[in-house]
Amino acid sequence: MDLKAYIRDVPDFPKPGILFRDISPLLADARAWKACIDGLADIVRPHRPELLAGIESRGFLVAAPLALALGCGFVMVRKRGKLPGRTLPHTYDLEYGTDTIEILDDAVRPGQRVVVLDDVLATGGTLAAAITLLRKAGADVRGAACIMELGFLGGRARLDVPFGGLVSY
Questions:
Q1: In principle, which of 6, 15, 119, 126 could form an S-S bond with 32, CB 3.0–4.6 Å?
Q2: Which pLDDT belongs to residue 169?
Q3: Which residues are catalytic?
């Protein structure tokens, strides 16, 4: 199935000059969404994950059903202040400033096999930060996967784990 046919281009969003790739039509079509999850399962399964980590917020949409399909757990990587209880934070550099992501401090057991998921790999900054954070918690990060890769932004080069994507632009 051609998943690109279910990804809508939205020009000038969120600001002029940006072409946003919207996965809403993909999510709305049951056959396309199942094909997407099945394709990601094929990418992720060889890493034998015990846990999938989804990056806020569209990464949750990818990681949670995939975890269910693969029979493994799911953990949320969230922006600062969004998780209840004790958290483990990681601050990373953005193009203009910094951001902080967190996981619950007991979300990962030392040595647990983890694969990180998001909807899109763009510059790779957030995905690389999530990998660093999970390693800080003791995870054995085996790989990363996304629905889409914006290859012209070079994000794959920032990752030190195997990466797989279903659609490339």
A1: 6
A2: 96
A3: 58, 95
